[in-house]
Write the structure tokens for this entry.
Amino acid sequence: MQITGQLTLTVLMGLFLVIIAAWLARIEDWRSYTPLGSGGAAGESGYVSQEKPTGISRWLTTVDHKDIGMLYGAYGVLAFVVGGLMIMVMRVELLDPGMTLISNSFYNSLLTSHGITMLFLFGTPIIAAFANYLVPLLIGADDMAFPRINAIAFWLLPPGALLIWAGFFPLGDIIPAQTAWTLYTPLSTGAGGGNQANAGVDLMILGLHLTGVSATMGSINFIATIITERAEEVTWANLDIFSWTILTQSGLILFAFPLLGSALLMLLLDRNLGTSFFAIEAGGTMLWQHLFWFFGHPEVYILVLPPMGIVSYVLPRFAGRRLFGFKFVVYSTLAIGVLSFGVWAHHMFATGMDPRLRASFMAVSMAIAIPSAVKTFNWITTLWNGKVRLTTPMLFCVGFVSNFILGGVTGVFLASIPVDLVLHDTYYVVGHFHYVVMGAIAFAGFAGLYYWFPMFTGRMYQRRLGKIHFWTWMIGSNITFLAMIVLGYGGMPRRYATYLPKFATFHQLATLGALLMFVGGLVWTYNFVVSWLEGPRVQDGDPWNLRDDGMYTNEWQWFQDRQETAITDGGDEDVVADGGTEE
Amino acid sequence: MATKVFDRDTLLDLTVNFIPLFILLFFLVGYFVYNPFKLGSTERILQYMLLATPFVLLAILTYLSGKAIASTEKSSPVYMPGAATVDGAEPIEDEHEE
Ligand code: HEM
Ligand SMILES: [Cu+2]
């Protein structure tokens, strides 16, 4: 029964891909068109022809890094909204101790999907959005090293999302996975009397696999681009910090994601073909955790390094001075990259593993806290005596620093074995990583979105609404995640739809904070949509007045050149091969 | 040239990675001196591998990146990071004075 369902789906998906391939092959000149409406970048590659496809086919066929960046951005933001709405349902359910609004198993499904959506469909893609758009501009490259691989990497993501969410669609017997994002065996092998042998779990695993392939292709592209495509003036000594973090992150992806892919395939084999990699008797439960976390811990740094890069890049612009100890930040980024592969079992302290191994993992986890702390001190020192301008992107940067301190410090506590044995699997852990993933990573994402909004859209957002967005999120996230830390100290276990009445107050506080962020999210959506459509046009290439402080950078120079080209050319015509930057 | 690449300023920049290296070394020595878990020896070897591998890899990467940055600094003009292709960009004077 389930097998037939699965087969039909596979065949359908295959057919769908064949149709797309056939259709793409019919378009003769699909690599040639002008990027964006108003003319080309400095030294735009020679392929540019007179015409570009318009409307939807432009977006379906684009291989321009900026267009692909926009696609990634739209995708990431959409996933963020989906994941956010999922959590709103869950937080409302958690307003009272019992099971009221939704069933416990639906809660578990939402929990699983929320985690995977936020990490794999929002986190990684939104970073790829910034990286695709900006890295070639920052390093003076024409485009990515492999523009078509870039496009393929993106187009693997939408089917990935459909597969991951497949359980929620009305597809016969298929139900959503309830394994949590960590997919611990034996639950995820479908063993026992539960319902996790359902094809919905297989589809989710396949979707995860696709997103992993996508991330790996992207990372190879970034490594090749940053190493080989730099303009002559851009040397290792003056490569910007964002590109450094993308380079490091890509290295981490290259080593971590293929491992996840293999582990997922083993899981699929166990589920469908009767292999026994993760058989309980053979210690398969521990094997899965080792494989998963060897990917999983680097993954958290894959997610946090580029946002750190964004903050290290944007924050000095509004402090009116260069990043303090620039090279400290570069070297500590690289150090985090290496060390992040040596700490994975701090997620497994409570499993009963050998205490000597545990001790080593604790030591490396302590060591990795140093480079993170170094960066924090550098950001603070950059602000010290700076000419601080509290624009919206700057507010988000400062919020990032504040939240990252709380997330990092709680992380160091958890890295201590005796503390972790008490707090493991409580809301304390949930509080810890949400301070980092929401308080820091998402905040840096917003800092970037506001900072480069004029470049992405050619228009300015409404500053007042931006600030309202910031304050609702700063206050909301701290209410929610501080309440979670307190709940964790009280012993509230994570991943439950119901709880003892004594936890009610802090759960309600957490929901209050989430509602505040929901309101802020509406303000943000309104602001971005309306400003994109009818905000005031940006008149020059320096909307943040960076030149006054000598903080002007490559990507704005490109933007200015493009604007000037647009004025002289009237936009839609041939691209001038050299838009003004010296070769 | 090879010796001059790692001058005082470069070494100072690299201290940031010497600290985690030192912490790893501290635990390597510490677990050798103090070993309360007298069990089999495979785990003991693994315990050291888990500390030694990151130590070695971090040392190598720190060396390589330090060399790449410091030697380009000497061979070509250094602009403000991220601002090398700005119109009329001037090399920044003294990298080591912030
Ligand atoms: C910098 C970005 C960081 C991110 C994105 C992050 C993310 C996470 C995530 C997602 C988890 C939950 C894993 C699960 O499902 O159980 C977690 C747990 C943990 N984090 Fe972090 N973390 C970060 C920093 C740190 C730091 C700096 C440390 C310590 C030095 C740390 C130590 C831990 C520990 C020990 C746990 C396991 C707690 C437990 O399950 O009992 N984290 N972190
Ligand atoms: Cu971890």
Q: What stands out?
A: Residues 8-73 of chain B form one domain.
